Task: inverse folding
């Protein structure tokens, strides 16, 4: 099954509270796991949520505040102890890559898997391009350089109508092209329009990660058209000034960004530890953008489904 | 109250399981907190067990395997965010100190507290000497250089008998000396033996941390006379060969070390994730050394009390 879902491993901010763990989530795209941010405890969260170490291939780090990447040495060492093979690529700002490389090359040299580093910057760029998915960075606006990530499923193939393929006796070698949208030309030279041979492809889905950032209209512009947006909501309206001073966002601001982007769904996260729950965050965001849910550790969101209103 | 107790924050080995966290414990000595080993999640464990960041002053790291020290950057950053003042001294092998210093000086420069490094080696040496406590290192025998730690309460003052002090009208300036054991000489030159003026001091307690290590009789010799011993028990008897090959101990071997040392109590920990519980560890150790308990996350042991048989 072409699954595309996000698992929340940690949605707290800065210091861990008894309610939330530091930033970490794992996107499962067709059974290939990609982690976004790796706060302390990421390795344990994967076990808790039964996300297999063997399937992890990419880790994206948004910025170099400890609560977003101090889980890397432990996770990467554990992957080695588990005998993981293949390649793990860490997409991270340069200073983080240097630190991580030195850490791993000092304390975890015996690795059965390849560890690769991809230096990212706060810019618009496709940093991963596979057969079926792209991952892009875009700038966030925080106290230190920060990047958001957009994962976009590539357009899928149209569905071939078996009856029509049989009727026209289309050679197998042409079928892939037809699924990609080509018309069929019969041996007699008759053009059969693609629409007669296929039904529309399944929709492609997309997901954006926006954390950490101050409210800035450019963020909404960067993620315009993305279906599901995860956005930091460190504070509530009453603490709007605090949010601005610390280059964080309120839940309302997250909702304004989602609305500006024309998203279908918003997931709030990265809560300050100063609240006893997130009901206020949720209420304030929903007043602006109804299809909002609040992240919590263990939450799994199917990115291929429409929001349940 | 002169409390002296140990709090177990993590007693698993290498990779975290769903049952145990990586190595970490906090000794509370008269409300002064000293951490031994700092596996990932240490900062969260302190919160869970209501151990105040503000009281933490020393961190001792036994060896440089990630499961024993990868929690340091997160914990030390969180102390900074919490506005901790005073000094935190990390006692650690040289390579670890270099890494930690570089990490903190890159990613956590704004620290309201002083962070000091004390380089330790696998040798017999007093590394901390306060008015009321000493901490010593001693060699352990693992795949990498490793040190155990012994915390010894210094001898306490004898209890002054108020009635006798009054009877002899002893000047206040002499009382401390008498509590330390001095006789009293009256103005007339009569010597009053200390035993008549005081009752015995409360006993002094001691605690040793032995993890990670292969079974080696020298360990028992190093901790001889220590009251409570925490000893790694990664494996059970059936996996004795595995223990030896990986420079770890079985529960029975931990018990043999405790017996050799003449300890009053043994705490087992550092369990391999390959067991579903520690009942077998406990049974095997108790057959050799009855006063054995099994560590678990959240356990608090009062080191001033006799083991409850």
Result:
């Amino acid at each position: 099954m072409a699954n595309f879902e996000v698992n929340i491993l940690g949605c707290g901010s800065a210091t861990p509270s008894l309610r939330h763990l530091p930033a970490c989530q794992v996107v499962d795209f067709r059974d290939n796991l990609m982690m976004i941010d790796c706060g302390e405890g990421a390795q344990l969260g994967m076990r808790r949520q039964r996300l297999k170490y063997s399937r992890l291939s990419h880790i994206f780090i948004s910025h170099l505040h400890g609560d977003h990447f101090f889980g890397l040495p432990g996770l990467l060492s554990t992957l080695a102890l588990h005998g993981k093979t293949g390649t793990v690529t860490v997409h991270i700002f340069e200073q983080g890559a240097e630190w991580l490389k030195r850490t791993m090359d000092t304390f975890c040299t015996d690795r059965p898997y390849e560890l690769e580093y991809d230096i990212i910057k706060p810019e618009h760029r496709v940093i991963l391009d596979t057969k079926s998915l792209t991952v892009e960075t875009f700038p966030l606006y925080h106290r230190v350089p920060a990047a958001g990530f957009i994962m976009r499923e590539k357009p899928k193939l149209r569905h071939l109508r078996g009856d029509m393929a049989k009727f026209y006796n289309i050679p197998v070698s042409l079928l892939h092209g037809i699924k990609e949208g080509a018309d069929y030309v019969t041996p007699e030279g008759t053009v059969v329009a693609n629409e007669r041979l296929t039904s529309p492809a399944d929709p492609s889905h997309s997901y954006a990660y926006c954390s950490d950032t101050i409210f800035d209209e450019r963020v909404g512009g960067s993620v315009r058209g993305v279906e599901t947006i995860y956005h930091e909501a460190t504070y509530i309206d009453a603490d709007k000034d605090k949010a601005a001073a610390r280059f964080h966002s309120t839940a309302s601001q997250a909702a304004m960004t989602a609305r500006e982007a024309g998203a279908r769904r918003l997931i709030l996260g990265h809560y300050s530890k100063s609240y006893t729950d997130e009901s206020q965050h949720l209420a304030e965001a929903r007043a602006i953008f109804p299809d909002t849910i609040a992240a919590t550790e263990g939450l799994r969101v199917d990115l291929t489904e429409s929001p349940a209103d």
Remarks:
- The radius of gyration of chain B is 22 Å.
- The longest helix of chain B spans residues 94-107.
- Residues 86 and 113 of chain B are 5 Å apart (CA to CA).
- Residues 4-156+202-302 of chain B form a domain with the Metallo-beta-lactamase; Chain A fold (CATH 3.60.15.10).
